[in-house]
């Protein structure tokens, strides 16, 4: 597990908020390894209790496709596991092994899905530094809703409209900011996507100072060697930080802007983003409040269902050993 002097760095952000861009920049630091999205933290945390049984934990690791995608084997994690470990320490051991494979002493994570599991992250990693990247939700919605069907599986958990995305954006941004209030300014930093692309050097300096790293020039220049061949929705990484890749003013239909602001206009305004309809700064409409409540009930049910399934033998049947 990362020591108290070198805590893990967890990048938070609603999907399509620029978290991949920030991840790529941070991962280029010589002392920090931030892999692609992990997805496995809730699975392992909900299947194992403290103290962790190393053998059972390793058996589950062999069932996770993420490890092979990272080029990491369960056997590389084995020496880092010991009897009596807390579940958070055991999960951190996976990241430690990944970082060691790349010759780096410190690890991080960037998985937007974990915006649904912020309390879990706080409990598992009590020294973590959280960097919350916020983007104008209307631009994030424009980016997400414009993604091709082959990239996003359109389940109920994936928004199908601007209003649906606004429910997710508002809920997750508010939850992350409440996390910041709980852990304090020493462990939570809020960064704007718009500032990152307008002045990446200054923004990275802020992030590095916050997490305790010396800025490195190599954190920029990623566009020359980033591989997005399997992720066409990340083509923008082939260019340097570029403001205005999405602009809701030109790319979002008026009715979609109105629907988004009906749900989240007051939060947009509080964050300093301009509104098309200034009246929406007063708060969600009655219909929007009902939509928000419905979204939050469904997301709670989704997490509860996932937790129940992970604790049954059915999880292992669905996840046979990969190696």
CATH superfamily: P-loop containing nucleotide triphosphate hydrolases
SSE string = EHEHHHHHEHEHHEHHHHHH
Rg, Å, rounded = 20 Å
- The total of helices stands at 15
* Name of the CATH architecture: 3-Layer(aba) Sandwich
The major pleated sheet works out as:
5 strands, parallel
Structural class: alpha/beta
Brief characterization of the structure:
The chain has about 325 residues and is α/β, with parallel strands linked by helices.
Structural write-up:
It is a single chain. The protein has 323 residues and is of the alpha/beta class. It has one domain (9-226, 242-318): Rossmann fold (3-Layer(aba) Sandwich), CATH 3.40.50. The chain is built from 15 helices and five strands. It has helices at 19-27, 41-47, 54-61, 65-69, 74-77, 87-101, 118-124, 137-145, 162-183, 193-198, 200-211, 248-251, 254-270, 286-310, 314-318; strands spanning 9-12, 32-33, 106-110, 129-134, 188-192. Strands 2-3-1-4-5 form a five-stranded parallel sheet, sandwiched between helices. Helix 8 crosses helix 9 and helix 9 packs parallel to helix 13. 40% of the residues are buried.
Helices and strands in order, then pairings?
Layout: E1 9-12, H1 19-27, E2 32-33, H2 41-47, H3 54-61, H4 65-69, H5 74-77, H6 87-101, E3 106-110, H7 118-124, E4 129-134, H8 137-145, H9 162-183, E5 188-192, H10 193-198, H11 200-211, H12 248-251, H13 254-270, H14 286-310, H15 314-318
Parallel strand pairs: 1-3, 1-4, 2-3, 4-5
Helix pairs in contact: 8-9, 9-13, 9-14
């Amino acid at each position: 597990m990362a020591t108290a002097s070198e805590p893990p760095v967890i990048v938070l952000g609603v999907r399509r908020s620029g978290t991949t861009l920030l991840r790529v920049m941070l991962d280029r630091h010589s002392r920090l390894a931030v892999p692609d999205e992990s997805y496995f933290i809730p699975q392992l945390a909900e299947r194992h209790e403290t103290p962790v049984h190393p053998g059972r934990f390793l058996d589950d690791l062999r069932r996770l496709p993420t490890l092979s995608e990272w080029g990491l084997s369960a056997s590389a994690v084995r020496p880092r596991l010991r009897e009596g470990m807390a579940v958070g320490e055991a999960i951190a051991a996976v990241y430690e092994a990944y970082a060691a494979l790349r010759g780096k002493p410190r690890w991080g994570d960037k998985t937007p899905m974990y915006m649904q599991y912020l309390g879990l992250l706080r409990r598992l990693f009590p020294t973590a530094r959280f960097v919350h990247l916020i983007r104008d939700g209307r631009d994030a919605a424009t980016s997400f809703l414009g993604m091709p069907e082959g990239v996003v599986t359109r389940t109920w958990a994936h928004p199908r409209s601007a209003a649906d995305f606004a429910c997710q954006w508002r809920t997750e941004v508010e939850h992350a900011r409440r996390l910041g209030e709980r852990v304090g300014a020493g462990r939570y930093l809020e960064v704007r996507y718009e500032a990152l692309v307008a002045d990446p050097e200054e923004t990275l300096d802020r992030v590095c100072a916050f997490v305790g790293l010396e800025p490195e020039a190599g954190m920029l220049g990623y566009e020359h060697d980033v591989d997005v061949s399997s992720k066409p929705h990340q083509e923008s990484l082939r260019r340097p930080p570029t403001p205005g890749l999405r602009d809701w003013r030109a790319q979002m239909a008026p009715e979609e802007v109105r629907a988004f602001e009906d749900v989240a206009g007051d939060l947009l305004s509080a964050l300093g983003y301009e509104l098309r309809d200034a009246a929406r700064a007063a708060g969600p409409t009655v219909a929007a409040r009902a939509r928000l409540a419905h979204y939050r009930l469904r997301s709670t049910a989704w997490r509860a269902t996932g937790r129940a399934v992970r604790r049954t033998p059915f999880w292992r049947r669905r996840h046979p050993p990969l190696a």
